Amino acid sequence: MNKTVLKIKLLNIDNDGYHLSIKAKLNGKLAHLLIDTGASRTVFDLNRMSKFIKTADMQENERLSTGLGTNTMKSQVAQLKKMELGDLVIPDYKAIFLDLSHVNISYVNAGLNPIDGVVGSDILHDHKAVLDYDKLELVLRSIEKKNLSPRKAAKKSVKRTAKKTTAKTKKKNDSKRR
User: Fold this and answer.
1) How far apart are CA 18 and CA 173, in angstroms?
2) Under CATH, to which class is 3-145 assigned?
């Protein structure tokens, strides 16, 4: 399993805390992303995406997005041909686009650059992310199977553990019979 290490930039938010920022590439173009371990899904700003994809490629998402202060936020879906997080390349990523203008207005008012999106737990979990605050690094690991959701990964892990436990129990019972 290969790993990639990205440098984290600590963004001081009005001397009241920090946000974690990384650089990425979306369809070959540089993007400024936040890391949000509390976000269930990676999302991108609808208003800034025209530099990465054609707006004609977007479709309305059937599901309403939750979080960001609401559970009725409409979103768009489009395929990113390639998302690069350091050496980690995620091809054909099904991307969600939301209006993040309220975040970007706050950033600009605080003297910070606007963001293009937020890396959420779908990517952080699937790529076994490790945040190293001491070194200001994000470590991500390549996965062998594409599009393995956290739920599927957890089920697979439980099945693997159950098979191992069953095999150990069978082996133990066989040795007792002898």
Assistant:
1) 55
2) mainly beta
